Amino acid sequence: MDDLTKKFQGWKEKIDQALEEYLPREEPTLFEAMHYALFSGGKRFRPLLLFSVGHYFRALEEEMVPVACAVEFIHSYSLIHDDLPALDNDDFRRGKPSLHRAFGEAIALLAGDALLTLAFQVVAEASFSPSRLAIKVEIVRRLSQAAGVSGMIGGQIQDLQLTDEVRDEARFLAMVGKKTGQLITFSVMTGGLLGEASERERRALFNFGQNLGLAFQLRDDLADLNQDEQARQQAKNSPNYALVFGQAKTRQEVNSYVDKAVGALKEGGINSPELIYLSEKLRVEKEDVR
């Protein structure tokens, strides 16, 4: 195991421990459902992005941990609700029954709601020194925006309005930029905010996050079409870039966005092996993605 892999593994263990500790236990069924959703094989991509940027700029880990957990809570809630029959109607998530299949729709709705609200509680209760309370308020504002109508929820609405017959690439990318890209960009930008990055560095981080978010979702769309037949059928429940514009073009675009993301770091003078590693992991080199 190389040094970068060890570093990411250590960060992931730290994040997982904090996620477990933050979960409320006063309602056992709800705790079990929330735990099931959080610990179902997620790679913690967004928290690891925040940690990578934050550590690069020497941010305080005690400030990074609660915000990283808040992002993961919101991401997990969005997956729970996405899988519901009213939206994507997916029976499985990461090879396991989706939450509404394992616990029922009512519990799934409540577990998603609980994770969303817990995210803001965790940030609000995070220990920031008095001189940095304005930064905490700014984080809450940005997180609300990234998760709300201007961000993820707005993208989900656009997702519902798109069909695979709509061959408008700009609309697809606008939807992706909100539904997936906003939380990724938030994670990147918040690491810079906590580490007090310069204006030039913040611009570079913004461009990096925007391009990385597009690469991430397009690669995910490509992967959905290279799974088993059941997974391919479920991919058709929601607009899929690779299904509409073809797998060859999608592979090309994923790599192009990875190049742009890495290029943004270089333009901003940000030499982070961790961020480059996370970017390059998205690159598509072969005919399929599994």
Top keywords for this entry?
2 strands; 290 residues; two-stranded antiparallel ribbon; mainly alpha; Farnesyl Diphosphate Synthase; 15 helices
Brief sketch in words of this structure:
The protein is an all-alpha fold and 290 residues long.
CATH superfamily: Farnesyl Diphosphate Synthase
Low-confidence stretches: none
The topology string of helices and strands comes to: HHHHEEHHHHHHHHHHH
What is the CATH domain class? Mainly Alpha
Description:
With 290 residues, this protein is mainly α. The chain has one domain (3-280): Farnesyl Diphosphate Synthase (Orthogonal Bundle). Helices cover 72% and strands 1% of the residues. The chain has helices at 3-22, 28-38, 45-56, 61-83, 99-103, 105-124, 133-147, 152-161, 169-179, 181-194, 199-224, 229-235, 241-245, 247-267, 273-280; strands at residues 92-93, 96-97. A two-stranded antiparallel sheet has the order 1-2. Strand 1 (92-93) and strand 2 form a beta hairpin. The radius of gyration is 18 Å and the shape is globular. The two termini are 21 Å apart.
Task: List strands and helices in order, with pairings.
Layout: H1 3-22, H2 28-38, H3 45-56, H4 61-83, E1 92-93, E2 96-97, H5 99-103, H6 105-124, H7 133-147, H8 152-161, H9 169-179, H10 181-194, H11 199-224, H12 229-235, H13 241-245, H14 247-267, H15 273-280
Antiparallel strand pairs: 1-2
Helix pairs in contact: 1-4, 2-6, 3-4, 3-10, 4-6, 4-10, 7-10, 8-9, 10-11, 11-14, 14-15
